[in-house]
Amino acid sequence: MSDACVGGCLCGGVRYRISAPPQGVLACHCRQCRRMSGHFYAATAVPKDAFELTEQKTLKWFASSVTSRRGFCAECGSSLFFDHGPEEPIGISAGSFDDTAGLVFAAHIYVDEAGDYYTLPEHERQFTRREWSEGGWKSLRRSS
Ligand SMILES: [Zn+2]
Ligand SMILES: [Zn+2]
Fold first, then answer.
1. What's residue 71's pLDDT?
2. For residues 49 and 31, what is the distance between their CA atoms, to the nearest angstrom?
3. pLDDT digits (tens, 9 = 90+) for 19-69
4. Which long-range contacts (CB under 8 A, 24 or more apart) does 127-133 make?
5. Which of 2, 11, 55, 102 is most exposed by smallest CB count within 10 Å?
6. What are the angstrom distances between the C-alpha of 43 and each of 57, 70, 133?
7. Residue 93 domain boundaries
8. Domain count, the chain
9. DSSP per position, 92-110
10. Nearest ligand for residue 73 CA
11. 142 φ/ψ angles, rounded to the nearest 5 degrees
12. Cα(70) to centroid of ligand 2, in Å?
């Protein structure tokens, strides 16, 4: 198995392994992701049955809404996972992979909520919150 399939937090207290190709990386610019990550949040995702925690002694989950929770390391503070329901794939921070060779960038989402101190690259796909909720993900799948 290549290094692209494993990752973890800065201190090593949380480690994971995936056994399916990771989805295209989404950069989310919503208020919540910006606050949680410190800038904007870039994550891939895999089906839950293709995700395994191999070390989780410092993993903590924060309920960020009624239906979703965010996983982070309580020791080093690394932002790691985004779980938005039992049937949904698990989101994994792109920066947490040991080797990012298996990752492909997909799109920027919630761009209407982006911070005003940076500029989004024009050559990368962009969706507002409304466009994304109205089927942006499907349009992305069709075009890729
Ligand atoms: Zn850690
Ligand atoms: Zn977000």
1. 98
2. 29
3. 999 999 999 999 999 999 999 999 999 999 999 999 999 999 999 999 999
4. 129/30
5. 2
6. 22, 12, 18
7. 3-143
8. 1
9. EEGGGBS-GGG--EEEEES
10. 1
11. -60, -40
12. 11
